[in-house]
């Protein structure tokens, strides 16, 4: 039988506001990338889907392909 230490049962430390903001940005970017993938699957073309991705990421991410700002 395995023994579990007390630390393993403790709740994780609260996240900073910066960490929560980063998590939210990652989730928003993943939604934008998923929409781009669905756009491509629908056969709408690279140019159309890339433009939609850029619009979805405006103010949230950097670069042509919606990279995370850190």
Overview of the molecule:
This protein is mainly α. It has one domain (17-65). Helices cover 59% and strands 6% of the residues. It contains three helices and two strands; from the N terminus they run H-H-H-E-E. The chain has a two-stranded antiparallel sheet. A hairpin with a 4-residue loop joins strand 1 (61-62) and strand 2 (67-68). It starts with 5 loop residues before the first helix and ends with a strand.
Characteristic key phrases:
70 residues, mainly alpha, two-stranded antiparallel sheet, 3 helices, elongated
SSE arrangement:
Elements: H1 6-9, H2 17-41, H3 46-57, E1 61-62, E2 67-68
Antiparallel strand pairs: 1-2
Helix pairs in contact: 2-3
């Amino acid at each position: 039988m395995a023994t579990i230490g007390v630390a393993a049962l403790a709740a994780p430390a609260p996240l900073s506001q910066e960490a929560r903001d980063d998590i939210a940005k990652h989730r928003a970017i993943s939604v934008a990338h998923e929409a781009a993938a669905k756009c491509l699957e629908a056969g709408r073309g690279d140019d159309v889907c890339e433009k939609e991705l850029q619009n979805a990421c405006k103010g949230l991410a950097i670069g042509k392909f919606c990279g995370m700002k850190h």
